[in-house]
Amino acid sequence: MRPRRATLKDSEQQARIFRRRSIVAALFVLIMFSGLIGRMVWLQVVQHDIFITRSDKNRMRVEPLPPNRGLIFDRNHEVLAENRPTYNLTLVREQAGDVGQTIDRLINILGLPEDQHEVLTQRSRERLRSYEPALLLSDLTEEQIAEIAVNRYRLPGVEVEAQLIRYYPDGEWMSHVLGYVGRISQEDQQRIDTSNYAGTHFIGKTGIERFYEDELHGKAGVKRVETNARGRVLREIDRTPPQPGKNLTLTLDSKLQKLGHDLLKGKRGAIVAIEPATGAILAMVSEPGFDNNKFVTGIDTKSYAALRDDIDIPLYNRAARGQYPPASTVKPYMASAGLEYGLITPSDTVYDPGYYQLPNDSRRYRNWLRWGHGRVDMKRAITVSNDTYFFTLAHRMGIDRLSSFMHKYGFGEDHSLDVWGAGSGLMPSRDWKRGRYNQVWYPGETLSVGIGQGYWLATPLQMATAVAVMANKGKWVRPHLAMEVGDKKIAPPFENTPDDIKLDNSHWWDLIHDAMENVMTGSEGSGRASGRNLQYRMGGKSGTAQVFTLGQKEKYNASELEERLHDHALFTAFAPVDDPKIAVAVIVENGGGGSRVAAPIAREMLDAWILPTMKSSEEAQRHARQNENTAQRIATGD
């Protein structure tokens, strides 16, 4: 039997296996290729914007362009606040990595005190966003800049940037009215548009700088730059330029402001001068003052503590916020209220034995002149500042009508247009006392208020505003500090201006003005010593405010009291009487008698403002006469 041949290879079966494997491999390759294509489509098309942004971030950076802060000028275009170039040190937390370690290196490199670590750490956190630069140090020296440049590789996120910084040429005597700028704090960031302050490290903190912050700051811009892997800028791609802040022209006269500062030098007090016709504040002095330049770059702890703990409170703006009893300066306003309510006539008289007594009351409310002025009418009562006359008037008027009428002069309210932080004072009433102390109002308290004492408190700004209204014969113009903001002029009429004070007989204003002029020039005038050799008509009223209350039988003796228990000296005035150009309020804390201490200061302020104008007017008249004579000679052929 012949043996079967064995088959070693089945070509047909292998072909089938090959085809199946080829199909599977092709499908696998197709699936993988499809996945790759899908991934590419996902990355290149669907997520194109995301990855192009990431790519740009690796090579491009957006940097803020802070605007230049607007300048501040006085009415004569003298610079009050300017910008000076300086170099600042900033840190971006996002780039710094370990912030604490970076700050330690910085302190070591610059040789700063160890206690600066906590300060710089706090400053690094003042920006809410970690990618925004936080200001660490200002006004770097050339040596510090060089040290940072040499060690830059050790200080990630730290940059030296050139920027303009605020400077106040007349810091000490303009400090309260201008205020100052300071570092942007976390509290500040709650009230600002942080995107508009990107790259800006300073913001107005007080005064005019704070009130007109939006106008002075401007709008931030941005620029895009290309960088290398180490973050070094290679080129600028494009930019949106910032809009600089608007310049601000104030109504202040820097020379008059400086004079007020010199007159109060070594004293505690305030002076406010207003142009009655426009409400323009010509001077607003508060003494003692401080150097506001120290606050711009960050005042050191020791210096700030010295200012904060100073017994004379130099940081306190007495002119706008200080509250004092207005004392006898209110007597002309009381007289206008008495006339309007029909409680007195100009010819009515009151006999003054040296005191006043309420009906069925044994207590004596004494006149400042112990033996009295005898019989006085309205004009003489204002001239000699008689208390008994106004005790009588206050009792007849009652606290409700008295308080209501004094609000018309602006007492108890802040009517300033743009004085940051201005106080409202206190104009007491029956309802106020019930709400404040849950007590009834007593008739004796009305008498004290009737001569500007007791609960009545007013700021120097309010006193100057009231005497300006008196000078205007009841016409109101809100006091303001800004004359121009950019190209926009600031001038009356202003919104929310109080109603003018109208008296039934307009001639009564002239009678009160005559009485106030008699204060300066009359033989009995309380301010006659300061009214000598006047070259213009001046109306005024003195005041002496008690710091503490005397007992019924006690007598005030300044020589037995420490200086801070002496009376406050006050004086309000306006001039010329027939065409008022300036109204002034002066207070000297613990200065004593108003006519002796405050009146001479008011006189010098008025002289400084009025006399140069009078001389210019006389010079103009002289030239006019010369021109007229020349024209006549030409006409006659001489």
From TrEMBL:
Catalytic reactions of this protein: Preferential cleavage: (Ac)2-L-Lys-D-Ala-|-D-Ala. Also transpeptidation of peptidyl-alanyl moieties that are N-acyl substituents of D-alanine
For the keyword Cell membrane, the answer is yes
Q: Does the keyword Cell wall biogenesis/degradation apply?
A: yes
Catalytic residue list: 328
Q: Which is a Gene Ontology cellular component entry for this protein?
A: plasma membrane
One GO BP annotation here?
regulation of cell shape
Q: Where are the transmembrane segments?
A: 21-42
Q: Which Pfam families match?
A: PBP_dimer (PF03717), Transpeptidase (PF00905)
Gene3D superfamilies xref list = DD-peptidase/beta-lactamase superfamily, Penicillin-binding protein 2a (Domain 2), Penicillin-binding protein 2a, domain 3
Cell location? Cell inner membrane; Cell membrane; Membrane
| Penicillin-binding protein dimerisation domain: residues covered | 65-237
Which InterPro entries would you find in this protein's record? Beta-lactam/transpept, Beta-lactam/transpept-like, PBP_dimer, PBP_dimer_sf, PCN-bd_Tpept, Penicillin-binding_protein_2
Q: What EC number(s) would the UniProt record show? A: 3.4.16.4
Which key words are in the record? Carboxypeptidase, Cell inner membrane, Cell membrane, Cell shape, Cell wall biogenesis/degradation, Hydrolase, Membrane, Peptidoglycan synthesis, Protease, Transmembrane, Transmembrane helix
Sequence ranges assigned to domain Penicillin-binding protein transpeptidase in this UniProt record: 269-606
Q: How does it sit in the membrane?
A: Single-pass membrane protein
Q: What does the record give as its pathway?
A: Cell wall biogenesis; peptidoglycan biosynthesis
Q: Where is the composition biased (Polar residues)?
A: 627-638
Q: Where is this region: Disordered?
A: 617-638
Please list the residue ranges that the record marks as compositionally biased, kind Basic and acidic residues: 617-626
Q: State the family it belongs to.
A: Belongs to the transpeptidase family. MrdA subfamily.
The record's function comment reads: Catalyzes cross-linking of the peptidoglycan cell wall.
Q: Which PANTHER family match?
A: PEPTIDOGLYCAN D,D-TRANSPEPTIDASE, PEPTIDOGLYCAN D,D-TRANSPEPTIDASE MRDA
What's this protein's name?
Peptidoglycan D,D-transpeptidase MrdA
What organism does the record attribute this protein to? Kushneria konosiri
What does the record give as the organism's lineage?
Bacteria, Pseudomonadati, Pseudomonadota, Gammaproteobacteria, Oceanospirillales
